[in-house]
Amino acid sequence: MRKIFSASLIILGIVGLCVSFLGELTGLSDYESASPRSWEQFDPQLVKETPDLASLQRKINFLSKQASKQASKQASKQASKQ
């Protein structure tokens, strides 16, 4: 049973390598990804502000609370217009 499992893993690895080599040798390797959206782009200022995980979590919590307050203000403005 172990030999069958080992052999199947080796065969699977060889197939994976063949697929990767095939991708490199054909025109499929010239793929260009789209440019990142504004919220996906690397922010060096955020890295400086949040050097560790705890400070990053505090920043995320602060920004999410700020966004929810802004959304509730916009909702109340729309409700008052109607």
What does the model show?
This protein is mostly helical and 82 residues long. It has one domain. The chain is built from three helices and no strands. It has helices spanning 2-25, 44-49, 53-81. The radius of gyration is 25 Å and the shape is elongated. The mean pLDDT is 87.
Features:
single chain; 82 residues; mainly alpha
Secondary-structure blueprint of this entry?
Blueprint: H1 2-25, H2 44-49, H3 53-81
The total of helices stands at: 3
> Structural class, from secondary structure content?
mainly alpha
Radius of gyration: 25 Å
Number of domains: 1
Give a quick precis of the structure.
With 82 residues, the chain is an all-alpha fold. It is built from three helices and no strands.
